[in-house]
Write a structure and sequence with these properties.
mainly alpha, 2 helices, about 0% strand
C-alpha cells in the first residue's frame, strides 16, 4: 500500500536476494501487528 511506512522498505533486501520470513500463524501475526484496516461495504 503506497501510504504505508513499509511500502518501500523491502525493495533493497529483495534486490540483494535477502530472505524475509513471513509469519502465517495468527498468534505470530498478531504479536507483530502495527495497525489494522477494516473494510466495510
Amino acid at each position: 500500500m503506497p501510504g504505508s511506512s513499509h511500502y518501500r522498505d523491502q525493495f533493497e533486501p529483495f534486490i540483494k536476494g535477502e530472505y524475509h520470513v513471513v509469519s502465517l500463524d495468527r498468534s505470530d501475526i498478531e504479536k507483530d501487528l502495527e495497525s489494522t484496516t477494516v473494510l466495510e461495504p
